[in-house]
Design brief:
- The chain is 27% helix and 24% strand.
- Helix 2 crosses helix 6.
- The strands form 5 sheets. A 9-stranded mixed beta sheet has the order 2-1-11-10-12-13-14-15-16.
- The chain has 3 domains: 258 residues, ANL, N-terminal domain (Rossmann fold); 67 residues, Luciferase, Domain 3 (Luciferase, domain 3); 99 residues, GMP Synthetase, Chain A, domain 3, CATH 3.30.300.
- The protein has 526 residues and is α/β, with parallel strands linked by helices.
């Protein structure tokens, strides 16, 4: 067999060689721009020359603060192909975390969307070069000798051939959200990116194909937008990018205008679009994926009944590239009614090819896949990290499996269900209460928009669940109403003793419930 490296440059060759006429569309502050994959790849090859003009060393990190846009896709392709490391940065993080990440990654040059300049400029004091990508915002550009214009640099640079890289070389760097400590960097190799991209094209995975119109709503700074830009390039799919226009109305307009067939986002996005469903024609959608946190069945039911859209779940981590499991109906589910099918699709699903998942009990033994016995979820595979950027080791088992910190069950057909995070389980009277299950049952109430459950100390039981609830607009509800609603839906001893009604639940920069911040908020009110 020929020894040819699995590298990002191969995605560029395929996109321009076979699918040069397919579209890449980006929403901007003023409207939309459109290009072809052929034009995007040609610009990416000139962008390789820009990195040479800026004297970015081989292997150096190239930081980006960017929306989902054509220029960001060009960076996705050019930086790894030029032998440098793409480092996507989350502008929604606290300034202290961003300063830590920038120092830890030692980024040599930073690319920034113009509309994000006011947000990120205070943390860029140490940057050697700052390249501004004009996304048609009206934010002032600082008068600073370090600042360059993206298009001006591109016009000056010649198209440059990709660098010679080994498939095990680093291609991109993403940091965890730092919910349990300092953010940690995960380096993806060229090989892991290509393998993960192939997985996304699989029929029992996301099945991305040339016929698709792919719209990644999940940010490109979050685990490479779940790999979707790379998948679209490899498959030759049209790519629709929301840019800075992330309001529900703007997202709905793009979904319908471009007849999007595949899209992915976190549950918070799907909740924000739910009120608009009655007026939307989403019949082009063949697959709508939710990830990042549990998909409530009530939300899935609303999409199905109002818009005829099937929401399906997925699961993964920054450390796993990210996709590990994907919810698809199997032949064993033939004959299930709509509610039972929806229940399957709201689980994380089966492991995708090349990944393996197991459960390990507190005694260190592997737990049976019987659908009821819980254990810590551990994963392994060529798209799973073995350590973190720098010298921080990953939390690995003795035989090299990544310990995720999630607790789950796996049924006989291999379908994973996440019961909870180990740190979020409530241990009441020596028995475990799943905060995830309790949250989903509370959010099934028609008057509830969001619910998060945390453990609070209890003199008698050790811990008891506290439910923090956000009501739907214009609705009223009392704690007694929720207690009555939960009766028969969960074990009686699971029903919270206390409900707190909040205006909003704190969230992480990637849209997950920020339970550390929520606990601080709750206890500050005691």
């Amino acid at each position: 067999m020929q020894d040819r490296p699995l590298d990002v440059a191969s995605l560029m060759r395929r996109a321009s060689g076979l699918f040069a006429g397919k579209r890449v569309i980006t929403a901007t502050a003023a409207g939309e721009t459109a290009a072809t994959w052929g034009e995007v790849v040609e610009r990416a090859r000139r962008l390789t020359g820009v990195l040479d003009l800026l004297e970015v060393p081989a292997g150096a990190r190239v930081g980006t603060f960017g929306w989902n846009s054509q220029r960001h896709v060009e960076l996705y392709l050019a930086v790894p192909s030029a032998g440098r490391v793409l480092h996507t940065l989350n502008h929604r993080l606290f300034a202290a975390d961003l300063r830590f990440i920038l120092a830890d990654a030692a980024d040599d040059v930073i690319f920034v969307d113009r509309s994000l300049l006011p947000t990120v400029w205070p943390v860029l004091a140490e940057a050697r070069h700052i390249v501004v990508m004009d996304d048609e915002g009206d934010e002032p550009i600082p008068d600073d000798p370090r600042v360059h214009d993206y298009e001006d640099l591109l016009a000056r640079a010649p198209a440059t051939a990709p660098a010679v890289v080994a498939e095990t070389d680093a291609a991109s760097l993403c940091y965890t959200s730092g919910t349990t400590g300092r953010p940690k960097g995960v380096l993806y190799s060229h090989r892991s990116i290509v393998l993960h991209t192939l997985v996304l094209l699989g029929a029992d995975s996301l099945a991305i194909s040339e016929r698709d119109v792919v719209m990644p709503i999940v940010p490109m700074f979050h685990v490479n937008a779940w790999g979707l830009p790379y998948a679209a390039a490899m498959a030759g799919a049209d790519l629709v990018l929301p840019g800075p226009r992330m309001s529900p109305d703007a997202l709905a307009l793009q979904l319908t205008r471009h007849k999007v067939t595949f899209t992915a986002a976190v549950p918070a996005i799907w909740r924000s679009l739910e009120p608009l469903l009655p007026g939307l024609d989403l019949t082009a959608l063949r697959m709508t994926v939710s990830g990042g946190s549990a998909l409530p069945q009530a939300l899935s039911q609303a999409y199905e009944e109002v818009a005829g859209v099937t929401l399906s779940s997925s699961w993964g981590m920054t450390e796993t590239s990210p996709l590990v499991t994907c919810a698809r109906l199997a032949s064993t589910h033939d004959g299930l009614d709509a509610a039972a099918r929806r229940e399957v699709l709201c689980t994380p699903g089966r492991p995708v090819p090349l990944t393996e998942v197991r459960l390990v009990g507190e005694d260190g033994s592997v737990v049976a896949h019987d659908g009821t016995t819980p254990g810590e979820v551990q994963v392994s595979g060529p798209t799973v990290a073995s350590g973190y950027f720098g010298s921080t080791p990953a939390d690995l088992s003795a035989d090299g499996w990544l310990r995720t910190g999630d607790v789950g069950t796996i049924d006989r057909d291999g379908y994973l269900r996440i019961v909870d995070r180990t740190k979020d389980l409530v241990k009441s009277g020596g028995e475990w209460i799943s905060s995830v299950t309790l949250e989903n049952e509370i959010m099934a109430h028609p008057d509830v928009a969001e619910a998060a459950v945390v453990a609070v100390p209890d003199d008698r039981w050790g811990e008891r669940p506290l439910a923090c609830v956000v009501l739907a607009p214009g609705r009223t509800l009392a704690a007694e109403d929720l207690r009555a609603y939960l009766a028969g839906r969960v074990a009686s001893w699971w029903v919270p003793d206390d409900f707190r009604f909040l205006a909003e639940i704190p969230k992480t920069a990637t849209g997950k419930f920020a339970k550390v911040a929520l606990r601080r908020l709750v206890f500050a009110r005691e």
